[in-house]
Request: fold
Amino acid sequence: MNGILKEMRDKTTELLNPHQHGHPVALKRFIDDMAVEVIEAKLMSALDRILLPVSIYKMLDDQAARIAGESDEIRTEREQLNKQLEVLPEWFRNVQAHSKEPDSLDSIINSRDGGEHTPGANSDAELELPSVSSISQPSELVYDSTLGPNTELVSAEIEEGVQEASHTMVAIFLPWLMKSRT
Reply:
């Protein structure tokens, strides 16, 4: 009887240790088949019970967020982008308020294009940005050491500077605004 048990133990050891006896494929196949059985039989059969609307409704918010939610990094990035989108229309209204140019974005686009605007017609490379040197420098006549500041020149310089700065800002952000509209 001991001989039979020893022989059975040797044969089972041989089958369970495939690398020693030339059966490396058997162990790999066994592991793959067990994984398929566990996934199909256990997890997939429970899927209809897990995803019932009632069970989802009863889930805690943390559980639902872990299952179907987005990562904290993506959520933070989305919130930052939404804040930027909220600020841009307000910024554009401020630029329009300080500018003597046309009132609408479409009229600005049409004046730059020389006609009707078609979305996506201009690439960023085609848009010309004004150079920094084109923005006027304060006049030397703004302040006279004997008379003090020349308020008329100061206000004219400020108004001209605001107008040129607003045009520069529009030229810089116009491509981005156009992409967000399309």
Summary: The chain has two domains: 2-68, 78-181.
